[in-house]
Design brief:
- The chain is built from no helices and seven strands.
- The protein is an all-beta fold.
- It has one domain (3-99).
- Strand 2 and strand 3 (22-31) form a beta hairpin.
Length: 108
């Protein structure tokens, strides 16, 4: 399963990422007072969203009905199910931003 790598030591930082053949610029922030992460999303130099909070198990940009956003759902999740929150301690260790890409073949 594919996921988006977040380099916590670089925060706050920006990076470009192609999702479903569309280029997006991500900017990652961390709030140390309340131990949570947010992302700003840009496309073609245009701001799509500021301060989208990473919430465990909740699809990013879920409540946005806008075709400029990534077409593939992105969900912070721990495949081992040991963590249930996106915190400094868990992000990039057990919790990753998974791209929920639909498989186009059969199981096996």
């Amino acid at each position: 399963m594919e996921y988006i790598e977040i380099e916590k030591d670089l925060i706050p930082y920006r990076f470009d990422l192609s999702i479903a053949d569309e280029m997006f610029t991500w900017e990652v922030h961390y709030n140390p007072d309340y131990d949570f992460f947010t992302v700003d999303l840009f496309k073609d130099g245009e701001t799509l969203v500021y301060g989208e909070k990473l919430v465990y198990g909740q699809t990013l940009f879920y409540d946005v009905q806008d075709n400029r956003f990534p077409k593939i759902p992105i969900v912070p999740f721990d495949l081992s199910e040991h963590s249930s929150a996106v915190t400094w301690e868990t992000l990039g260790v057990s919790v990753f931003l998974y791209l929920l890409i639909e498989e186009d073949g059969s199981d096996g």
